[in-house]
Amino acid sequence: MAIGGGYRPHILRVDLEQGSIDRQPLPDEAILRRYVGGTGLGLYFLLKNAPPQAAATDPDAPLIFAVGPLTGTPAVNSTDWTTVCFNLLVPYSVGIGHGHGFFGAYLKLAGHEGIYLTGVSERPCYLWIDDGHVELRDAGHLWGLDTRETERRLKIELGDETNISVACIGPAGEAQLPGAMVKADRNHGSGKGSPGAVMGSKNLKAIAVHGTGVVPLSDAPAVVDLAADWEESLIAGGQGPAVPLALGVQNGAVTRSGAGARTKAKPAWGSELGRKYVEACRRWRVTSRPSYNCKIDCTYDVEITDGPLSGYVGSPRGGAENTDGICAVIGVDDPAVAVVMTDFFEGMGVESNLFGTVMESMYRAFAEGVLTPEDTDGLDLTWGNWESAMELVRKAVRMEGIGARLVNESKALPETLDGEKGVLEKMGSRLLEIDHEDCLGVDEVRESQYASLFYDTLGVCNFGIKGVPEALRITSESLARTVGWDGFDTVEALQVGERLTNLMRLAYARRGFLKENEFEVSIGRSEPQHPPARTDAYYRQMGWDVGSGRPTAETLARLGMDEFIEDPITR
């Protein structure tokens, strides 16, 4: 059956150097069915169009925004938009990040399946998408503003503070800092791979979207019925709108336990911060800020209503990794301070986990006397001194003194940054923890990872999938009914996930990833993460060449990825 819904007919191709905007038709149906959308389509475009050896911030290196066939539909949490770019910190890697809010849905409702950006604008600009009308506008008056103020001013300028979504960068992106994010709708953002730095390198300050259309559905009644069952399963599984703070706080600050902030003299602070934060939010004024068709409401605004910081309003992202990654790791356990710090990092547009890793090492060095006030430009990096942490970021944006060192150490130690090497390494790490003779265990883990990658193609938030019984069946059926693909089932869904694993491997190999990169030693480890024998077993399980770790022609043919068989790296 031909495509009956789900997809818009094109992506926007924007050349910022030329100031040109074109509409590139989507690939044919067979390719869409192989890679679906979101992460899959973004990686496909990267492999087909991007110069393989370009650095992340080179003019011809792309920044891709991709949605999925379920984005903007009745499907549960149909909010997801994906950023795909070359990773700023890990040269052979691809940066894949996910954001939520309203940006992805509005882009889809405006009639576009994604945006492929190249070139460098002569001066700061922003992209304005008003349904079918698309233009580049001057953003000189917005350059230097934080993400919240950029969004506020753009909405006023465009005359609609309610029905426009803005994705933008802050000073961190303008300065092309490692970990710079693309922020959207105040509480949301995408940060893996430093897409904000790539956006800043192109002199693109923001993308504003107004969409008034409707996403077509091949079988609308079936899609709506599946969405109702999906929502019921989600709530029965313990999710749903009842407790935004349970996701927003306890799954992060409480359970992670601030593992980074440990010295001989100091315990972990994460659990204490989490406990205090949950108690404080019961006293403070918390307002849910859901995404498009969101059933979780994990993002929220929080107004501090007591103490010296009373009256301050923060707007955290969903989850608490951002708060834990900058507060607990440097010894902060005051929940009010955590709100202020998190909000500052979000406004600057920097992924807190990345900078938190390096900041923690600086605070540790200061405690041990390795760094002195002379080394830190007079900043007091005593555990818990949060004002100094915020000043470090300001100095980093200016590439000044200790701030420049912070940036350079971030670039020098990418192997310490959790998540920066992407899904592929995480998958490999989990598989290699299982004895290769235990085939059942390997297959179970591999299936779980393929399912996770399939979910990343759909355009839905993973918070709407976790804990849902039969999630793979429900999502596969929702995709089939939305698009009109007869016979698309869970087996085909897992094949999509396997193809994405191989797409990533192809991209990595093109950029110089070698087998020896599997044996990189992270800080604090004395032994390689992946013993050679297990790596070889993993390669065989995946259908990759044991000598190079590259997908074999046979594997690509089995998966229907024939267009990549003649790639030089597979020969």
CATH fold name of the largest domain: Aldehyde Ferredoxin Oxidoreductase,  A, domain 1
CATH architecture of the largest domain: 4-Layer Sandwich
- What's the gyration radius in Å? 23 Å
Cα distance spanning the termini: 35 Å
CATH class categorisation of the largest domain: Alpha Beta
Query: Looking at the structure, what is the overall shape?
Result: globular
Low-confidence stretches: 242-267, 415-440, 521-528
> How many separate domains?
3
The SS-based structural class is alpha+beta
Chain-averaged pLDDT: 86
Q: CATH superfamily of the largest domain, please?
A: Aldehyde ferredoxin oxidoreductase, N-terminal domain
How would you concisely characterize the structure shown here?
With 571 residues, the chain is α+β, with helices and mostly antiparallel strands. Helix content is 40%, strand content 13%.
Please provide a written account of the structure.
The chain is of the alpha+beta class. The chain has 3 domains: 10-210, Aldehyde Ferredoxin Oxidoreductase,  A, domain 1; 238-416, Aldehyde Ferredoxin Oxidoreductase Protein, subunit A, domain 2; 423-570, Aldehyde Ferredoxin Oxidoreductase Protein, subunit A, domain 3, CATH 1.10.599. The chain is 40% helix and 13% strand. The protein is built from 20 helices and 15 strands. It has helices spanning 29-35, 39-49, 103-109, 147-158, 171-174, 195-201, 220-236, 244-256, 270-283, 321-326, 335-348, 352-367, 386-397, 402-412, 422-432, 439-455, 471-483, 490-510, 532-542, 553-558, and strands at residues 10-15, 20-25, 63-66, 81-86, 94-99, 114-118, 125-130, 133-138, 165-168, 182-184, 188-190, 204-210, 285-288, 300-303, 313-314. The strands form 3 sheets. The protein has a 6-stranded mixed beta sheet. A 6-stranded mixed beta sheet has the order 8-7-12-9-10-11.
